[in-house]
Amino acid sequence: MLLLNSLIKDSRLRISFFVSIALLMLAAPFAVAQKHKPKTRAAAPEPAEKSSAWPKQDRDPAITQIIKDVSPQRAQQTDEKLVSFGTRSTLSVHNPGAATSSQGIVAARNWIKSEFERISSECNGCLEVKTDTFIEQPKGPKDRIIQPTEIQNVYAILKGTDPAQANRIYLVTGHYDSRNSSNENTTDPAPGANDDGSGTTVSIECARAVSKHRFPATIIFLTVAGEEQGLNGSTHFAKMAKEQGWQIEGVLNNDIVGGNRTPGDTLQNDNWVRVFSEGIPTAATEADIRRIRAIGGENDSPSRELARYIHSVGELYDFGAFTPKLIFRRDRYLRGGDHISFNEQGYAAVRFTEYREDFNHQHQNVRTENGIEYGDLLKFVDFDYVANVARLNAATLASLASSPAPPSDVHLLTKRLENDSKIEWKPAPGATAYEVLWRKTTDADFPEENLQRTTETKVDLPDSKDNVIFGVRSVDAKGHRSLIVIPEPER
Ligand SMILES: [Zn+2]
Known about the structure:
With 491 residues, the protein is an alpha/beta fold. The protein is 31% helix and 21% strand. The protein is built from 12 helices and 17 strands. An 8-stranded mixed sheet has the order 1-2-4-3-5-8-6-7, with helices on both faces. A 4-stranded mixed sheet has the order 15-12-11-17, with no helix packed on it. The radius of gyration is 25 Å and the shape is globular. The protein starts with a helix and ends with a strand. The model is unreliable at 1-49 (pLDDT under 50). The site of zinc ion has 6 residues, from loops.
C-alpha cells in the first residue's frame, strides 16, 4: 500500500484510489452478510446458466401432471422400506438363509421387483418387469467381489407406443446395494438411505408417476446392484444392452440425491442438484478424438447435450427454486458411478448428485464417535429434495420419450472453403420441424436468440462455421424437442 501510494503522483488518481479502498472496505461486511442469507435461488453465488429456453406455451400438460404426481411421502416410504432390509450389501447374497431372510440384498431385490409389479398392476400391466441375473467372478486378489457372487439388476420397461420409435430408449437408474465401513461385512447395518436408497427411490417414483401416461418412445426404470464393488451390475446391463443392439439415447443415473441435511451444516443448497456429464466420450476411438480435436468438440459429447437438455426441462417446467447445476466433468474427483458403465458402451449418460455431500454419512458403520454421528441414516435424507430430483428426472424422461427422434446424419458441408455454413440432415420420425442453434465457441450453452427453425432438412446460414458451434434438433407439432445433435464435418 505504501509503495502504491508513493507511485500515485497525480492527486486525482490518489483520491480515486482511496475512494476505491474505502468502497471495498464498505463492501466487505456486506459480502459476509450475503453468505448467511437464507438459501434461495437468488442467493446462489453464481448466475444461472444460459440455455436454449423453450417457449412456455410448449409445456405439455401430461408432463405438468407427472411433476405433480411425484410424492415426497411416497418417496420416504420407499426409502424406509429399502433401509428396513438392514444391509443391502451385494455380498450378503452369501449369508446363510439369504434366499428367505427378511434382511439382506435378496429380500431387497425381491421387494423392488414386487413394487414394480404393483405399479404395473395399477396401469393395467403397462410395465414389463424383468431381472438381469448373472454370476460375477473375482478378478484378482484386490477385487471387492471376493468370491463368485450372484448379482441381479431389476428393471421395468414402459414400451413406446409408436412402432417407428419404440426402439428409442431413455433410462433412469439408481443402485440399490449399500455398504458400511467394511466391504466384507454383510450383517451389520448398512442403511444406505442416501447412497443409494435415494437414487433407487427416484427410479421407482419415476416409474409410478410416468407409467400413468404413454409415450412414442420407450422408458426403462432400472435399479442395479454391485455398484459398491466396482459398478458390476450396471457394467453387465450396459454390455447386454450394447450386445443386443438397444438404442439407448439417454441414461439418467441418480446416486446420492438425498440432499443430505446434517444439523449445523449451513452450506448445503437444497435448490441445486448437480448433473455431471463427460466431455471427451469415454468410448471415443482414436479417429473420434482426432475429429473432436480438429473441430473443438470437447464440450459437445452426447452426454453433455443430455445435460443441457435437463437444464432446458428445468427451465420450461415449474420446479419452484429447484434447478439443475450442470457440472462439465464426468464425475467428482476420485469417484465414479453407474453412468460411466453406460458411457463405456458409447451411450449418453449423466449423473445426478446432491449439491454438497457429507462423507460421515457414506460407507460408514452406524456409530457416534467424538460427538460425530456416522452412518447413512434416514434422518439425514431430505425427502422434499428427493421428490424434486424425481420430478426433474420424470419430466426429463417424459419429455425425451414424447419428443421426435433426434435428426440423424447431421452434416456440415465443408467441401469448399467458404464463409457461410451449410448443414444437412435426414428426416426424423415424428418431427414436423427442425431447429438449428448456434453458440460462440466460448459459451457453455446455446442461447435462445440464436435459432433458425425450418421444415426442410437443410439450412444455409451466413455465420461462419469456423466461428461458432452448431447443433440441430427435431421438434413436433406440440413443441416437444429432441436432444441436440452436433453436425459432423463432411468433405
Ligand atoms: Zn453410490
